[in-house]
Amino acid sequence: MANYYGVGRSNYFKVKDATAFMKLVEQFDCEVINKGDTFALLSNAEDGSFMSYPDDDGQIFIGDLIHKHLQDGEVAVFRSEEHTSELQSRETISYAV
Length: 97
Fold this sequence. Notes:
The chain has helices spanning 18-25, 63-66, and strands at residues 4-10, 30-35, 38-43, 51-55, 58-61, 77-84, 90-96.
């Protein structure tokens, strides 16, 4: 049986309120990189996704919430790549908000 791996990251972007942004990000399995006045996210999830599972009713994509925190004119791009250990299957997913 093949092992399944994933990696995910975002671009750097500016937010309106860093404290509120950090509170939002706590819900997700990701690491925040702060570079000056910009932020980027790295997924710590096994599949490389930027999802949160607050309950059994479904999942939440961070991009559906983060757009409210972006400064005007900023774009956040989330990209994840998933593959098996034998590279029998490979998938790249990108979202922009």
